[in-house]
């Protein structure tokens, strides 16, 4: 009996720690249920306020559910480092763009480091990197290390900015991690509004203040640009089929979809918006315009009295007077004049003094507020603005204005981002998964537990007790380390139930053999445990190794499976070798067992 | 209760038959892999999957034609859940646009049967090829790791035979996936990340089963002459047979529970595990030990096991 005291204490400690670790999960579940049971909202609110600390504590320490069980979004985004590199390059020529195209294609096929791909491509062509990057005297190695540090910097800045945006949007416990040299993994639980998340994550919010040119200049520019074809021949191939088909019978020249109103404003009908907006960015159209100017479209359509929608076209100076970098504060609100959503902005000191100078020098002229290449408004400057305040109006909805506020405050991304992978699970599917998962655990346990008693008699009961402790340990370790439980994780638990009894099966079969050779029960149990140990050890190590590799190389949900399999396998070493052994010793001492107890 | 009383099957005597069966399984699988290929899921192929649940049962054909009208090119299939359909497209753009396109056209065409979009998944091609690479790396690392571990704990021949058995198990299951892939709506048997998880678990299970037999052989082989090897191998397999069958049985029980209860997302995994455990049990009896035996007969040195 004495030799078991230590083991007994150990088992008691493990069991207590497990229960202690799972307790908050149970409390959380019970409290949530109670909150839902109240008839009126007032009662439930009162209860929530009274038990606030308790509820928060339970929630904080309870078992976390993965995105697939709770509902939410999992995204993998790529920061376009190549775009950043392209911006950094100078002396760009045809050779350069050809190589860049090649690199872009290769980068699209894998997650390798772009700088390395670029360097390899230049080496293959025998061109020195310094011809396009940094100083001509730099060696390739130096250029590579500079580009690498810039791209790393861009990735971590992008992560910070996206974290800011998500924090302000208000998501509980977002996960934002960098992966490799250019990817971000983002997990947002409880969020399923793809449209908003997409806007928040990808919005570059490139804000520029640009001087609007005189109406005469606009008319002249439109007249010249109007002679250009609406669609460049090369572009028609790239454009999707519906547009190409439309172009076949539709207008051929840009001037056919651009009109001039009596008041001198230039417009294009809403149906031609996509085509015109693409055409205005084309190099052959840009070349027809006066130096340092560009034609931009308004962001939101206007309506004629007959209800026809049209977009205005402006000629603005290409070099911005001021950019969004100076914005420090932004606030979404409704305009006092027409109750339309707008965003109020204030600037830092540098921006304020520049803004005062710009507005002072251009009284009576229009300044366009350009966001991501579309003109939101082009107010006429009434007086010098010394306060550094400005406003964006012409925004579709308050929600959009709020998102804009968040993006402006968080700053713009260092390079464009793309979504490579997106998985959204709605909350109702999540609760289906939980129900299915619970059912599987219950049935799996019942099937194995009943079989063990059926096949091994009293020894089976010991194995089943060990199995219960095993499941407790798995769940408590998950809760204790704040690892999220996922559907594959539940599958891992169910599979563990089936495999964890293996250690007991090995021992029991051995004990039966020893009994068959005529040994006493006590002797048989001793030898059985000793002889089975090496098999148990080897088989557990191999299973653990496979699960570990799965954890290392797997992504997302598969890792959840690997984690529960690892914990379950490790725990079964303990439960089978220590727990059942102690149980047998206790049974033997109290004469609960005899030769037939192993079935 | 006992399923097996003292058994004395002569497994080694029939090993040639087992070799033929295994070869046939492998060849059938490989032929199917080359001819039919695998039914890759979006994890490894890229594309989008949308799961839609309707309030009332719905005809797949109707939804298919609504989707075609809406300009969503793809396959609409029954999803392995009540009143649910799965839409698969190679679409890789803005999922919120796809969502509203599907939602709007369904609510316009089927106003009496409201639909809910349960989940949307979209995977780009570069991610897909990365996932393939890391899956292959994981499998390769698992095989090398097992080869090393078994070499250290037993002997090189044992390790090679164990890895051959793993190859045998994983390849036959892969062949099965290729043969049956896409045939049943209830289990499309797509190769995705969860199947890779299944393969690694199968590898772990297969070697676990094999190692238990090895362990018994090691125990019995101590100080025996090579002429007794056949008898010892046979007896060792027979003595561990009961354990092999019981453990496979309990594990298969839980895998069956997963297959029937855990929902469509786990079904492919459960199927792979079931087939894998079956093969793993078979291979530890009929593949691993016989290979060592045949190899040993050709070599002159007696088996020298570590840790014996």
Task: Provide an overview of this structure.
The complex is a heterodimer of chains A (599) and B (308). With 599 residues, chain A is an alpha+beta fold. Chain A has four domains: 1-62, no CATH class; 72-202, no CATH class; 207-394, Gyrase A, domain 2 (2-Layer Sandwich); 427-598, Multidrug efflux transporter AcrB transmembrane domain (Multidrug efflux transporter AcrB transmembrane fold), CATH 1.20.1640.10. Chain A has 21 helices and 16 strands. Chain A has helices spanning 3-37, 41-50, 52-61, 67-70, 81-88, 94-109, 114-125, 140-169, 194-202, 215-225, 233-238, 241-249, 273-280, 283-286, 349-361, 398-410, 427-456, 458-480, 487-516, 521-553, 557-589; strands spanning 72-79, 175-179, 183-189, 207-211, 259-260, 266-269, 293-297, 302-303, 309-317, 322-323, 327-334, 341-347, 367-371, 374-377, 389-392, 417-425. In chain A, strands 5, 6, 7, 8 and 9 form a five-stranded antiparallel beta sheet that branches. In chain A, a hairpin with a 6-residue loop joins strand 11 (327-334) and strand 12. In chain A, helix 17 (427-456) packs parallel to helix 19, helix 19 packs antiparallel against helix 20 (521-553) and helix 20 (521-553) runs antiparallel to helix 21. Chain A is elongated and about 110 Å long. Chain B is α+β, with helices and mostly antiparallel strands. Chain B has two domains: 12-41 and 127-298, Multidrug efflux transporter AcrB transmembrane fold, CATH 1.20.1640; 47-123, Alpha-Beta Plaits. Chain B contains nine helices and four strands, in the order ααβαββαβααααα. Chain B has helices spanning 15-35, 42-45, 60-70, 95-109, 125-153, 156-180, 193-221, 229-261, 264-298; strands at residues 47-54, 75-78, 84-89, 115-123. A four-stranded antiparallel beta sheet of chain B has the order 2-3-1-4. In chain B, a hairpin with a 5-residue loop joins strand 2 (75-78) and strand 3 (84-89). Chains A and B meet through helix 6, helix 9, strand 16, helix 17 and helix 19 of A and helix 4, strand 4, helix 5, helix 7 and helix 8 of B. Strand 16 (417-425) of chain A pairs antiparallel with strand 4 of chain B, so a sheet runs across the interface.
């Amino acid at each position: 009996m004495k030799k078991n005291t230590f083991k007994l204490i150990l088992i008691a400690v493990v069991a207590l720690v497990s229960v202690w670790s799972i307790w908050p999960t149970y409390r959380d579940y019970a409290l949530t249920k109670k909150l839902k049971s109240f008839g009126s909202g007032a009662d439930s609110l009162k209860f929530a306020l009274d038990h606030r600390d308790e509820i928060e504590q339970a929630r904080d320490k309870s078992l976390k559910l993965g995105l697939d069980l709770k509902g939410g979004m999992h995204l993998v985004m790529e920061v376009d480092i190549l775009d950043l590199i392209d911006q950094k390059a100078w002396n760009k020529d045809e050779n350069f763009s050809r190589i860049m195209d090649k690199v872009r294609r290769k980068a699209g096929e894998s997650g390798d480091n772009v700088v390395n791909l670029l360097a390899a491509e230049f080496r293959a062509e025998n061109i020195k990197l310094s011809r396009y990057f940094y100083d001509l005297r730099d060696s390739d190695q130096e250029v590579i290390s500079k580009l690498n540090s810039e791209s790393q910097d861009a990735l971590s800045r992008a992560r910070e900015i996206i974290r800011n945006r998500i924090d302000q949007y208000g998501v509980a416990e977002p996960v934002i991690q960098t992966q490799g040299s250019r990817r971000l993994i983002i997990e947002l639980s409880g969020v399923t509004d793809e449209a908003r998340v997409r806007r928040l994550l990808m919005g570059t919010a490139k804000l520029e203040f640009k001087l609007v040119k005189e109406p005469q200049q606009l008319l002249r520019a439109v007249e010249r640009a109007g002679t250009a074809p609406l669609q460049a021949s090369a572009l028609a191939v790239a454009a999707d089929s519906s547009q190409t088909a439309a172009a076949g019978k539709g207008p051929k020249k840009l001037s056919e979809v651009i009109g001039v109103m009596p008041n001198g404003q230039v417009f294009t009908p809403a149906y031609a918006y996509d085509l015109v907006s693409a055409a205005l960015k084309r190099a052959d159209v840009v070349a027809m315009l006066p130096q340092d100017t560009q034609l931009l479209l308004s962001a939101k359509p206007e309506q004629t009295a007959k209800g026809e929608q049209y977009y205005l076209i402006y000629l603005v100076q290409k070099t911005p007077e001021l950019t969004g970098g100076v914005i420090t504060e932004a606030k979404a609100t409704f305009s006092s004049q027409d109750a339309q959503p707008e965003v109020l902005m204030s600037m830092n000191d540098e921006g304020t003094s520049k803004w005062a100078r710009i507005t002072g020098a251009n009284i009576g002229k229009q300044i366009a507020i350009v966001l991501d290449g579309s003109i939101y408004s082009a107010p006429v400057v009434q007086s010098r603005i010394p306060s550094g305040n400005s406003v964006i109006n012409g925004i579709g909805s308050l929600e959009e204005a709020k998102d804009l506020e968040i993006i402006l405050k968080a700053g713009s991304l260092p390079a464009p981002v793309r979504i490579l992978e997106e998985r959204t699970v709605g909350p109702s599917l999540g609760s289906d998964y939980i129900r299915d998962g619970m059912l599987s655990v219950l049935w799996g346990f019942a099937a194995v537990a009943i079989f063990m008693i059926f096949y091994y008699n009293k020894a089976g009961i010991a194995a089943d007790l060990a199995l219960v402790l095993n499941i407790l340990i798995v769940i408590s370790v998950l809760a204790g380390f704040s690892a999220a439980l996922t559907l594959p994780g539940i599958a891992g638990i169910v599979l563990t139930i089936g495999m964890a009894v293996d250690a007991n099966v090995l021992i029991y079969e051995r004990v039966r053999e020893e009994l068959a050779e005529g040994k006493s029960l006590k002797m048989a149990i001793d030898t059985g445990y000793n002889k089975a140990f090496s098999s148990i050890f080897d088989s557990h190590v191999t299973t653990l190794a496979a699960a570990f590799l799965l954890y290392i190389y797997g992504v997302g949900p598969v890792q959840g499976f690997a984690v529960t399999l690892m914990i379950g396998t490790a725990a079964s070493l303990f439960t089978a070798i220590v727990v059942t052994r102690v149980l047998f010793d206790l049974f033997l001492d109290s004469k609960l067992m005899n030769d037939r107890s192993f079935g | 209760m006992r399923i097996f009383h003292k058994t004395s099957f002569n497994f080694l005597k029939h090993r040639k038959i087992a070799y033929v069966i295994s070869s046939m399984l492998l060849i059938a699988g490989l032929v199917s892999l080359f001819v039919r290929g695998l039914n890759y899921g979006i994890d490894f192929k890229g594309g989008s999957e949308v799961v839609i649940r309707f309030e009332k049962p719905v005809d797949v054909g109707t939804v298919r034609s609504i989707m075609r009208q809406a300009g969503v090119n793809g396959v609409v299939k029954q999803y392995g859940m009540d009143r649910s359909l799965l839409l698969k497209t190679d679409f890789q753009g803005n999922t919120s646009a796809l969502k509203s396109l599907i939602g709007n056209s369904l609510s316009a065409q089927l106003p009496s049967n409201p639909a809910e979009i349960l989940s949307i998944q979209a995977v780009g091609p570069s991610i897909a090829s990365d996932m393939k690479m890391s899956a292959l790396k994981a499998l390769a690392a698992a095989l090398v790791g097992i080869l090393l571990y078994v070499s250290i704990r037993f002997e090189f021949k044992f390790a090679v035979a164990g890895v051959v058995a793993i190859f045998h198990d994983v390849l036959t299951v892969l062949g099965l996936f290729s043969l049956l892939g896409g045939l049943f709506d209830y289990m499309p048997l797509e190769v995705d990340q969860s199947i890779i998880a299944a393969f690694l678990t199968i590898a772990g299970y297969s070697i676990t089963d094999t190692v238990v037999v090895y362990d018994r052989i090691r125990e019995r082989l101590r100080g025996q002459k090579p002429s007794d090897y056949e008898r010892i191998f046979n007896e060792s397999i027979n003595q561990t047979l009961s354990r092999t069958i019981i453990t496979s049985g309990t594990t298969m029980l839980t895998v069956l529970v997963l297959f029937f209860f855990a929902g469509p997302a786990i079904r492919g995994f459960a199927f792979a595990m079931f087939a894998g455990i079956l093969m793993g049990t078979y291979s530890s009896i009929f593949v691993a030990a016989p290979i060592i035996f045949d190899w040993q007969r050709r070599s002159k040195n007696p088996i020298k096991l570590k840790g014996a």
